[in-house]
Q: What sequence folds into this?
């Protein structure tokens, strides 16, 4: 671990157009080892600075490294997962709480959020969007169509929905297990724990998506992030359409998360090296618990976010199946 002191500031850049328009926020490295978005943001900012790109209207705010401590350490988290239990803290207790005091107002102030991530396993980029319009207690929302258009424009082959409702099911099971009394255990059992950047944005009005730009070290990740930023700005009328080729003509596959399985012990292991969106059949063995119990797929579908080195008590993998949702 670095002996340098913790970072004492969050670097935020804003380009304000001279014509009124939407307020876009683009973020990256919420998890410190997910750097594709850092490269994409850096390139877009350089082109805005040079005049190669012209901002037609509105404002765009960039936070290229949201978690500078985790980024400096080259790992997912600094002191905890910033993209869980995200809200302005009453009394900051760790580094990520202090970041949240600056990040949450930025999320609340924007109209649209593009949050750039990457993932551990092999696989192609995909987008994650929020719920359908509803007035329920978990995640009330009124921008389903606009958010669907945003998810469709960035150029992925797949779009995934159902994050927070699926996570809530996992939290119910997690809360039933005895914790060790640590802050981490308490956070993981908090009903708010599934809330990250996009969920907090939606709670404050407006909409946003999480864009997974491929595997962490994929050399094409920064280029994908760069084009996604440009496509988003074109969609919002902030850049001329000709600055980037349009999204692929093929309609993306739409999947819905329906289950999350935690890794309960260090000895829990997968039966093979899974990649996100590998197909699984009902009853197929996905992993083995430390006590030898098989972990079986409850239904046909796809495995998402398999994390072979997940910490015990955290999400090990998700399961998804075809969605009947329609997007433009």
A:
């Amino acid at each position: 671990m670095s002996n340098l002191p913790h970072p004492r500031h969050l670097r935020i850049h804003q380009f304000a157009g001279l014509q009124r328009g939407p307020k876009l926020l683009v973020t990256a490295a919420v998890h410190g080892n997910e750097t594709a978005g850092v490269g994409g943001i850096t390139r877009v900012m350089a082109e805005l600075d040079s005049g190669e790109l012209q901002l037609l209207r509105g404002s765009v705010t960039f936070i290229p490294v949201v978690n500078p401590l985790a980024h400096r350490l080259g790992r997912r988290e600094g002191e905890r997962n910033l993209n869980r239990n995200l809200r302005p803290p009453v009394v900051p207790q760790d580094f990520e709480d202090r970041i949240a005091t600056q990040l949450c107002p930025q999320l609340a102030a924007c109209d649209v959020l593009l949050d750039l991530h990457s993932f551990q396993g092999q696989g192609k980029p995909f987008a994650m969007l929020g719920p359908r319009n509803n007035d329920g207690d978990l995640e009330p929302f009124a921008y389903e169509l606009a958010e669907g258009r945003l998810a469709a424009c960035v150029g992925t082959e797949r779009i995934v929905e159902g994050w927070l409702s699926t996570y809530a099911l996992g939290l119910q099971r997690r809360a039933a297990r005895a914790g060790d009394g640590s802050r981490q255990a308490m956070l993981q059992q908090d009903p708010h724990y599934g809330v990250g950047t996009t969920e907090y944005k939606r709670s404050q009005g407006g909409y946003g998506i999480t864009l997974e730009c491929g595997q962490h070290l994929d050399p094409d990740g920064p280029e994908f992030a760069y084009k996604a930023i440009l496509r988003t700005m074109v969609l919002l009328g902030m850049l001329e359409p000709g600055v980037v080729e349009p999204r692929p003509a093929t309609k993306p596959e739409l999947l819905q998360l329906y289950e999350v399985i935690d890794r309960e012990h260090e000895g829990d292991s997968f039966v093979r090296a899974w990649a996100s969106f590998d197909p699984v059949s009902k009853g197929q063995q996905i992993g083995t618990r430390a006590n030898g119990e098989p972990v079986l797929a409850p239904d046909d579908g796809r495995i998402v976010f398999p994390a072979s080195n997940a910490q015990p008590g955290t999400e090990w993998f998700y399961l998804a199946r075809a969605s009947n949702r329609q997007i433009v």
User: Anything to note?
Assistant: Residues 41 and 275 are 27 Å apart (CA to CA).
